[in-house]
Design goal:
The chain is an alpha/beta fold and 460 residues long. The chain has two domains: 225 residues, 3-Layer(aba) Sandwich (Rossmann fold); 176 residues, Rossmann fold, CATH 3.40.50.2000. Helices cover 36% and strands 15% of the residues. The two termini are 13 Å apart.
């Protein structure tokens, strides 16, 4: 079931924040009534997410924008979030972490920052410790946050998600579980956990949480199929894609102030990789691709973002003496449109087992900016299917640097094809991934309204 009339959420240079500082029940579950029956009474909604602006992660941007829209529609919204430290595990400059702090956003909602472990999470222990401390803190701070009618959770795996469910149960509220990465499957695909006893325990725990949820929201039909394979009721699982605000990122001139500030000349063809450089990103293929493109002095691979794999790529590029691949950190939201407009094409890469069930959010920025997409992904992935359906770019063999380099060269030499792909991509974005329809779908799910299936191809 795909909801949203074809609209959706944030990108990963749309990782760049713009904010300042459910469907049925099963036996053994607490019954939670539909809030749609409460007439004109504003619903009291809690949104729990471990990342939140000024962090750049798209989930946090999504929660910020969802809170804004819900508040504008008259609901009383509370965001429960952590202290800004993602992705490095280091508290952002100018912030002082405390057990609890309340911010009142000028857009009409409050944000409760709750204390948790902050540590450069390079190992399993520290990552689990962060998950545990955030989950406990979420629960304790949420108990003191007043009454909720509905709780939406985009929290940390295992501890955070169960803590959010317990909070909802204590408040007798609907619990809406948002699944953007299916755990522990995504961790196994990234090689972070083996498919042994621990894996089976974690999978059973997450499946139980799915069954306890009032509703589940996920990003694409592939993810929905994997959830249903666990024996979850189909009517409980809705698909609402990621979204990006199409007013903030629109097709613009490639020659702009941001491009000039980076010293990128007008004759340089820019292949932009914008977003998180994570374990499942497959971004390592970009190094060998840049090596194969070394003879094309007019082509630059530009990586804008952060992530656990970035340092490794920067070192590899330096050791190879590559001058045609550059790395920049995430950029402020105020220049996001110019960053995307600088690109001549947008790049997305994924490991073979990743992305089969959702589309990386970085793709939305490319589509919104009217730029063609070159994807080094599995041929049967949802990303590949979306690109073919939208007619917005080229799918190359997964993790094949030669094929990726050939595709970049082909589009560098054919401006008419680039323009055609770009127009098709923007049109598809407006049908599927723009903000209003997806936010409306989330509101209806939170209120427990019956959501009618709509024709919305794709997902992420």
């Amino acid at each position: 079931m795909v909801i949203g009339g074809g609209k959706s959420r944030g990108s990963q240079v749309a990782d760049m924040s713009t904010a300042g500082r459910p469907l049925g029940s099963s036996k053994g579950k607490m019954e939670t009534p539909s809030l749609a029956s409460t007439g004109d009474r504003a619903a009291r909604i809690g949104l729990i997410c471990h990342v939140y602006p000024p962090e750049y992660a798209p989930a946090g941007v999504m929660v910020s924008e969802l809170a804004e829209n819900l508040a504008a529609n008259g609901h009383r919204v509370t965001v429960i979030a952590g202290w800004p430290n993602h992705p490095a595990g280091v508290l952002f400059a100018g912030w002082r972490a405390r057990w609890r702090a309340i911010e009142y956003d000028s857009r009409g909602f409050r944000v409760i920052r709750c204390g948790h472990s902050i540590h450069p999470r390079r190992g399993t222990f520290w990552r689990l410790w962060y998950y545990l401390t955030f989950g406990i803190s979420t629960l304790l701070n949420g108990v003191c946050a007043g009454q909720f009618d509905a709780v939406l959770c985009l929290s940390t795996p295992v501890f955070g998600s169960w803590a959010a469910w317990l909070l909802a149960r204590m408040k007798r509220a609907r619990f809406v579980y948002a699944i953007f990465d299916l755990h522990p499957e995504s961790a196994a695909n990234a090689g972070l956990v083996k498919r042994g006893l621990v894996y089976r325990i974690l999978r059973a725990s997450d499946s139980a949480l799915c069954r306890c949820s009032s509703s589940i929201v996920t990003l694409g039909e592939g993810l929905r199929s994997e959830i249903l394979a666990r024996g979850i009721q189909p009517e409980k699982v809705a698909v609402v894609p990621f979204w990006l605000d199409g007013r903030k990122v629109q097709p613009g001139p490639r020659e702009n102030a941001w491009r000039r500030a980076q010293g990128i000349g007008p004759g340089t063809f820019v292949a932009l990789y914008a977003g998180t450089i994570g374990y499942v990103s497959g971004a390592e293929v970009l190094i060998e691709t840049a090596t194969q493109l070394a003879a094309r002095k007019d082509i630059l691979i530009l990586c804008v973002g952060e992530g656990p794999v970035k340092d490794r790529l920067v070192s590899a590029a330096a050791q190879a003496g590559l001058g045609n691949i550059h790395f920049l950190p995430f950029q402020p939201a105020c220049v996001l449109d110019m960053v995307q407009a600088t690109a001549d094409v947008g790049l997305v890469t994924l490991l073979p087992e990743a992305g089969k069930s959702s589309v990386p959010s970085k793709v939305l920025g490319y589509l919104a900016a009217g730029r063609p997409v070159i994807a080094s992904v599995a041929a049967d992935s949802e990303t590949a299917e979306m690109i073919r359906s939208a007619g917005c770019g080229v799918v190359t063999r997964c993790m094949d640097p030669g094929d990726l380099a050939d595709a970049i060269v082909a589009l560098a030499d054919d401006v008419l094809v680039r323009e055609k792909y770009g127009r098709s991509g923007r049109a598809y974005f407006e049908r599927v991934f723009d903000r209003p329809g997806c936010v409306s779908a989330y509101e209806r799910i939170l209120l427990g309204e019956r959501v009618v299936d709509e024709s919305c191809p794709g997902g992420e």
